[in-house]
Every structure is written in structure tokens, then in C-alpha cells.
Design goal:
Elements: H1 7-16, H2 26-39, E1 42-43, H3 45-54, H4 62-72, H5 78-91, E2 95-103, E3 106-117, E4 120-124, E5 136-137, E6 144-148, E7 151-155, E8 164-170, E9 173-184, H6 191-196, E10 209-213, E11 217-222, E12 225-230, E13 234-238, H7 242-253, H8 257-264
Antiparallel strand pairs: 1-10, 2-3, 2-9, 3-4, 4-5, 6-7, 7-8, 8-9, 10-11, 11-12, 12-13
Helix pairs in contact: 1-4, 3-8, 7-8
Length: 275
């Protein structure tokens, strides 16, 4: 249901991820996920910029996506990150499928990936802005808990319909989450949700959210705040204005300041991502 990449496209993608050598098997899958999450940020600057200058109100092509990563240090939100990564995995021979997930805002408004390998059922989500540097097991009979800074992610065991519940807590308060449904979906299934994400009132058309992970820490730019986290601690730096914000985006993410400044020009009062 998801078209594979061409050989040239797959080679370009692996080059962007700085992945060389073995690309098949469970160990290689872990390496690919880690490379994607650490090298391709979750961010909406590219979304705002392409919408403004190219009128793009859908998922960028693989060529545009990879060029953005290479030239401008772009990444994407859930749809481009998970869709294109799923295509890469399938091209490399993995039994990977794109699935829909329900959020409080509606049904199938998030896309994620499941991978079946060596008799295991794994969740791969490289588009949630979360520290999922490795696939998460969906086939265990207990909660899978991941802590990072002040955040805690809990993946519940599959229910009797094969669905997986992921909850995200911050300072012990439930902030966000989704219900993943294992039915394979073509990217066209998400057309309405993708189009709606470009509405003038849509969250990521009214906020700034960038997330970058390494093996040891993370940096989040969330509107006028910078949050730095390790597995055990976090700190928050408040920015004074939008010029400081664009300078921080370039400093922390490598996205040129003139592009960041252009992307957020015209945005009104910033909106909270989680309400």
C-alpha cells in the first residue's frame, strides 16, 4: 500500500542519514531508527516556509524532503517523517506498514509505523517529537515505559483489537497521546488530515515547535522557550522576542535564520501545541 523508493532515492536517503553497510535485520532496523531520529528533527518551520513560498499544502516529495534535510537542516512533522521513513524501510525489505492513530482532536490524525520482524511486533514513530530512538515492542504483556527529562511515555499492551495506547506525561500529568490502530493505510487515507493541518486555525500554522535528539540529550524550541533535557534532568530558557527565537533556531538546529524569520513572519500570537 506504500510505494517503495527507487534505488537512487533509497541511496540518497541513506546518505542523508549517514548510514552505510548492513541495512537489513533487527539490529540494522535499530540503527536506522536511531539515525532518523537523531539526524532528522521534528519541526514545523519547513511546513510554514514551503506553504508560504511554494503553496505546498501536502506532503513534500521525497526529493524535496531530502533536499530540505541536506540544505537547510529541515525535518518534518508526523506525516512526512513517518511516511518517507516507512517507504525507506519497505524498500530495504522490512515488513513495515503505515498506520493511523486517533488523538483527542480526531480519528487517524496521526501516522506511525509498525514493523514485523523476527516474530516481533514493533512500533516505530519518528514523527512524534519523542525520544523513540529504538523501536518499541507492541507484543509484550506489560507497560513499556520510557523516561526522558520531565517526560514519561507509556506504551500499553495491545488490546483485544490489536490497538496500542501511547500516553505522554509531563511532570506526572497526562499531556497527550494516541491510540494506534494496526490496519495498514495508504498515504491517501490521511489526505483530509494533512489538508486540515494547513488550515489557518491549525496548530502547527500558529506555533513553533522543533525537537532534536541525540543519544544523551535533547533540545526543544517551543514558541519562546528552549527546553534542554537529559534522561535525568531538564532546564528551560525563556526567549525575549522572535528575533532571539530565530537566532536560537539557527544556533540549535542549523536552519538559516533568514528562513526561520521568513517562516514565522505574519504568525499571530503563538498557540500551545497541546492546548
Amino acid at each position: 500500500m506504500i510505494a517503495a523508493l527507487s534505488e537512487t532515492q533509497a541511496e540518497a536517503y541513506l546518505r542523508v542519514l549517514c548510514v552505510a553497510g548492513v541495512t537489513t535485520g533487527r539490529g540494522a532496523l535499530h540503527d536506522l531508527v536511531r539515525a532518523q531520529v537523531t539526524r532528522v528533527p521534528f519541526e514545523n518551520i519547513s511546513k510554514l516556509y514551503r506553504f508560504k513560498h511554494q503553496g505546498l499544502n501536502g506532503i513534500p516529495s521525497i526529493e524535496v524532503y531530502l533536499e530540505g534535510i541536506e540544505r537547510f537542516h529541515f525535518g518534518g512533522t508526523c506525516y512526512p517523517n513517518n511516511f518517507h521513513f516507512c517507504r525507506l524501510l519497505r524498500t530495504l525489505g522490512y515488513d513495515a506498514v503505515l498506520c493511523g492513530a486517533d488523538m483527542p482532536s480526531g480519528e487517524d490524525v496521526h501516522a506511525a509505523i509498525t514493523v514485523a520482524i523476527d516474530g516481533r511486533d514493533l512500533l516505530v514513530d519518528v514523527g512524534y517529537g519523542a525520544p523513540f530512538l529504538e523501536p518499541l515492542p507492541r507484543d509484550v504483556g506489560h507497560d513499556v515505559v520510557l523516561r526522558f527529562g520531565r517526560d514519561r511515555y507509556v506504551l500499553k499492551p495491545r488490546d483485544d483489537q490489536g490497538r496500542s495506547r501511547l500516553d505522554m506525561y509531563r511532570d506526572c500529568e497526562l499531556i497527550h497521546g494516541y491510540l494506534l490502530k494496526p490496519t495498514p493505510r495508504p498515504i491517501e487515507h490521511f489526505s483530509k488530515a494533512v489538508k486540515d493541518s494547513f488550515r489557518p486555525s491549525a496548530t502547527f500554522m500558529n506555533a513553533v515547535d522543533l525537537v532534536r535528539f541525540s543519544d544523551a540529550d535533547s533540545v526543544v524550541i517551543y514558541n519562546l522557550s528552549i527546553i534542554r533535557s537529559t534522561a535525568e534532568s531538564f532546564s528551560i530558557e525563556r526567549l525575549n522576542d522572535r528575533e532571539e527565537l530565530t537566532e536560537a533556531i539557527e544556533r540549535e538546529f542549523g536552519i538559516p535564520v533568514e528562513i526561520a524569520r521568513d517562516a514565522i513572519a505574519g504568525l499571530g500570537e503563538f498557540r500551545g501545541v497541546h492546548g
